[in-house]
Amino acid sequence: MNSTLLKCALPALIALAISVTPAAAVEQNCRFIQAKPEREACYKRQEDELAAKRRPAPATAESNTLETLRQMRQDDDAVYRSISNICRGC
Q1: What is the pLDDT of residues 3-22, one digit of tens each?
Q2: Is the pTM of this model over 0.70?
Q3: Is the distance from CB of 67 to CB of 51 less than 8 angstroms?
Q4: d(Cα 79, Cα 72) in Å, to the nearest integer?
Q5: Nearest to 30 by CA among 17, 43, 19
Q6: Do residues 33 and 44 lie in contact, with contact meaning Cβ atoms separated by under 8 Å?
Q7: Which region holds residue 56: left if phi is over 0, alpha if psi is between -120 and 50, else beta?
Q8: Contact (Cβ atoms closer than 8 angstroms) between residue 57 and residue 38
Q9: What is the rounded CA–CA span in Å between residue 11 and residue 17?
Q10: pLDDT tens-digit profile of 22-38?
Q11: DSSP readout, 15-35?
Q12: What is the DSSP secondary-structure string of 46-69?
């Protein structure tokens, strides 16, 4: 059982290590640029990328659909309440 676990876990750990390394290298490479304008441009690109990641996702069609359904449900409930107040067979 241990050998099966090791066979599965080892490739997964290697893949994880490989995928994480380039991301860290992208952050660190601006420090080593000697020319000031190029280094500042690199930092600016990193700031823009980070801001883009932090920006909330735009409203999707699915969220708009859910909001529309919720509003329709409220309207239906209001109509049903008003109908139940109508005298039947008076």
Answers
A1: 776 676 767 767 766 766 55
A2: no
A3: no
A4: 11
A5: 43
A6: no
A7: beta
A8: no
A9: 10
A10: 554 455 688 888 899 99
A11: HHHHHHHHHHHHHHGGGG--S
A12: HHHHHHHHHSPPPPPHHHHHHHHH
